[in-house]
Specification:
Layout: E1 5-11, H1 15-28, E2 33-39, H2 46-50, E3 59-65, H3 71-82, E4 87-91, E5 95-97, H4 101-111, E6 115-121, H5 135-146, E7 150-152, E8 160-164, H6 165-171, H7 184-194, E9 198-209, H8 221-237, E10 242-247, H9 250-265, E11 269-275, H10 281-287, E12 296-301, H11 304-312, E13 320-323, H12 326-334, E14 338-340, H13 345-354
Parallel strand pairs: 1-2, 1-4, 2-3, 6-9, 10-11, 10-13, 11-12, 13-14
Antiparallel strand pairs: 4-8, 5-9, 6-8, 7-9
């Protein structure tokens, strides 16, 4: 059988989770693929279960049994090194799939050569079904209304990422400096973008994530590992900035949008505060000739007092304030904000390193 996608999955104990993954994957993945199952030294019967799996008409199954737990990153890299198909999917083993999820994701990759890494849509990205029983209803609605659509994101999330062989050839696997886990997906997204590609989501492909069903096994170490990996990521790429950009109407939004998107592509989140007018989000990006970007959002304000309230009330403080009048910039500067009259990418990069 000729297959076009290698799907790399790691297992470590929790046979019930892995079994649910395999059953859902085989039932809902019609795209010709090879499922590469890497077991990290399970001792609960998972290895024996994996050895019973049989390939199907659409899916070749390859099982690799490690004698010891090599950690998430090294285990996944082991699978990446074994892959050679035109497309590669890196997946957690705590997923539930819907029909056509992989075909749609790969279709989006094929439509635009600039797209290098994407997530399927998911509860991980805020699209929560009413219940697991309604997954296919939700997926059908997405297929009917958003087939082929791509939305950019500052980063992809590692629960399920689909990429191309040319990307793997350029950026290889996960960086082992983030061993054993956490922020390897943020780092990978940044490497993919550094190589000249876009990252985002295939809007009509849907996968449900049970969210760390297998991560409970690391117990009390989770917090310390997370903190250490975050520090490494911030040191390597700079802090993820929260940026407030103040615009005086729709015309100004149109002119600043390309730079706002570029800020988001560099691993930041941008809120564009627009005076006095609600905007059609999709239309704004479309008229600008850009993919919609989840890292750029719009907030309407009416007066300077309204603007101050909406910026100051945020529990998470903005790291940078851009634009507005000289008076407004003076106010925010006195309040201790980093204030810029216009975008200065060199200054933004400096702030990312020191905030």
């Amino acid at each position: 059988m000729k297959y076009n996608c290698d799907v790399v999955v790691l297992s470590f104990n929790r046979m019930d989770v892995t079994r649910q993954f395999v059953d859902s994957f085989l039932a809902n993945t019609e795209y010709p693929c090879r499922l590469i199952m890497i077991d990290n030294g399970s001792g609960d019967g998972t290895k024996e279960y994996l050895c019973t799996l049989q390939s199907t008409d659409n899916c070749i199954i390859k099982v690799v049994l490690n004698r010891e737990n090599r950690g998430f990153i090294r285990g996944m890299n082991q699978g990446i090194e074994l892959s050679h198909a035109p497309y590669v999917c890196l997946a957690n083993n705590d997923l539930i799939f819907t029909k056509g999820w992989l075909s749609e994701a790969i279709s989006v990759l094929q439509k635009n050569s600039r797209i290098g890494l994407l997530n399927p849509n998911s509860n991980n990205l805020g699209l929560q079904p009413r219940s697991q029983a309604n997954l296919e209803t939700l997926a059908q609605d997405l297929r009917s209304n958003h087939r082929g659509e791509f939305v950019e994101m500052p980063f992809c999330i590692g629960f399920c990422m689909v990429t191309k062989r040319e990307v793997i050839d350029k950026v290889a696997g996960y960086s082992e400096e983030f061993y054993p886990m956490f922020f390897e997906d943020t780092d990978y997204s940044m490497k993919v973008k550094e190589a000249g590609y876009l990252t985002g989501v295939a809007k009509s492909s849907y996968v449900y994530h049970l969210e760390h069903a297998s991560m409970k096994q690391i117990g009390s170490r989770k917090e310390s590992i997370f903190k250490e990996s975050k520090e490494k990521c911030d040191k390597k790429w700079g802090k993820i900035l929260r940026i407030a950009w103040i615009a005086d109407g729709y015309k100004e939004v149109s002119s600043l949008l390309p730079e706002a998107v570029e800020l988001a592509r560099r691993g930041n989140y941008v809120w564009v505060f627009v005076r006095g007018r609600n905007l059609d989000r999709s239309r704004v990006f479309k008229e600008g000739g850009l993919f919609e970007h989840s890292g750029v959002n719009f907030v309407v304000f009416h007066t300077i007092f309204d603007l101050l309230w909406k910026i100051l009330k945020k529990k998470k403080r903005y790291d940078v304030v851009i634009g507005a009048s000289e008076l407004t910039r003076c106010i925010f500067s006195r309040l201790g904000y980093n204030v810029l009259e216009k975008v200065d990418f060199a200054e933004i990069n400096r702030i990312k390193k020191v905030v």
